[in-house]
Amino acid sequence: MPGKEIVRMTVVLSKAIAPFWASVPAHWGDVFIAEDSRVRQRMLKLYARFEVQLLAFFYWLLNRDFMSRPPVRKFFYYALAKFMAERAIVSQVMTLEEMEEFIRGLPEDGRIAVGPCRCRLATRACDHPLETDIVILTGAPIWLELFPRDYRPIDKEEALRIVRESNEKGLVQMLDRHMYFRGSANYFVICNCCACSCLPIIGYRTFKEDGYHYIPSRYRSIVDLEKCQGCGTCVEVCAFGERSVAGGKARVAKCQGCGLCVRFCPNQANSMVSR
Known about the structure:
alpha+beta; Alpha-Beta Plaits; six-stranded antiparallel sheet; 11 helices; 10 strands; 45% helix
């Protein structure tokens, strides 16, 4: 009967297209944000190709005199910085211990590579170590393909050595994601950042009053006022400008959770606690 034939053909057709539907993202937006999305990876590759030029432009922009005017600053925050910082390339500040744990947890068969910090290449604003840009997961094959002379494969042990040495020099460990929506991971690079050249940190210091923020870190700093001698060391090492000394004691504003104040405080007056 025609009805039975329609049912049979429907079943056959369903089986034929099942592999196709299995490959379609569960949410329409996943074509842009899924870890294995080819569209997302092509966007990341495009970003990588022009990354240094983009960073150089943002560095030039953030250092213009007109950025000190609140209306102008707010315009550029909503026009550029907000999407870039909250969705496109999103950073999470980590303590050294957190970053070490993350690196140890990377897949054993995952590729890791290191090359020159893109921010320092773009700004030429400091003499901090250059080979500190650790690309991981979907980021590693892209940067290795585009910049074979600049990047070289490394293992977890070398990655751990780089972040430890960077931390010793007062650099902030940050983990970056690409296309961050609905909690997507998309980790692609581990950065070791300084206040002189790091565009995410410069962006934070420029736009924090307008709402610029990172993915919340797991920890924040507190001060033991009895131990604090008001020496100001923590003010010097805080790349985010969130430390001050008042009344002879260190004060913490919006701690971003890097832990450098704990490492460098000569009086062990700082400690990290869960948020």
